[in-house]
Each structure stands twice: as C-alpha cells, then as structure tokens.
Amino acid sequence: MKNENCIFCKIAAGEIPSATLYEDDDFRVILDASPASKGHALIIPKEHYRNLYDLDDALASKALVLAKKMTLRLKDVLRCDGYNIVQNNEEAAGQTVFHFHMHMIPRHQDDKIGIGWKMGELKEKDKEEILNKLK
Ligand code: AMP
Ligand code: ZN
What we know:
The chain is an alpha+beta fold. The chain has three helices and five strands; from the N terminus they run H-E-E-E-H-E-E-H. The chain has a five-stranded antiparallel sheet with strand order 1-2-3-5-4. A hairpin with a 3-residue loop joins strand 1 and strand 2 (about 25-30). It binds adenosine monophosphate and zinc ion.
C-alpha cells in the first residue's frame, strides 16, 4: 500500500527524483539529502510501512540482505573503514520520516560523526525486572 502524503512513497515510486544507487521490485536505495558522511544512503521499501513494528516479515529479511549487499559494494567504492546501519522507530528514537528506512552510514577511522551513546551500567534490578516480565 502507498500513502499519498508520504515523501518516501513518492521517492520510492520514482515520482520525486532521487539519487538512486539501486532499485528492485521491493526497494529503492538513495543517497540521503542531508548526509552524516559522504555516501550516507537509505534503503526504502516501495510499499508504505510506518516503521519496523509494521514491516512485513519477508521484507524485513530482504532489507538486511540488501544492506549487506550494498555495504559490501559501497565500502570498496567509497574506501571507508566501517559502516553503521541505523534504523529509527518513532519520534523518541529520532524518526523524522514515518516510512520505514534503514540508514547506511560510511565511517572512517577517527571521524567525528556522532553516532553513539554514553555507556551505562546494567543494574541487577533492571535485569531481573526485564527477564521476569518477558517470561
Ligand atoms: P530518520 O530521522 O531516521 O527518519 O531519517 C530520515 C532521513 O531522511 C534523514 O537522514 C533525512 O536527511 C532524509 N531525507 C528526508 N527527506 C529526504 C529526501 N527528500 N531525499 C533524501 N533524503 C531525505
Ligand atoms: Zn510511505
């Protein structure tokens, strides 16, 4: 299903031009318009899913396989030292476009790109609570 108010639906369908690196029946891979680093790209399904919670299972598998294929190719083209695959779900987690997508962000040794967090400490109480609630 498409969402007529969704910019990524339009980009994925080719209705809005994009710097397309790859396309198949299920996905379009484009360069991000505001890249964190040179070559920052997005994997966008052609069907509309708000985020990972809604994503079709078969497509979820294909998305990760495609991320593998793209990063293997791009790391040679871009000569980068590493890759972050980032995927944000809901506003609290930084999602700004509410059509599922995966970021592929090329990294270079000692670049100062801020993808990270301050490491905390796993508290015994939290661990017990989570493990018990999942039973
Ligand atoms: P997120 O914050 O995870 O939802 O990521 C949305 C990403 O989409 C951001 O990195 C934006 O720079 C990118 N973006 C938004 N609009 C466009 C567009 N028209 N073309 C390419 N990238 C876009
Ligand atoms: Zn959409």
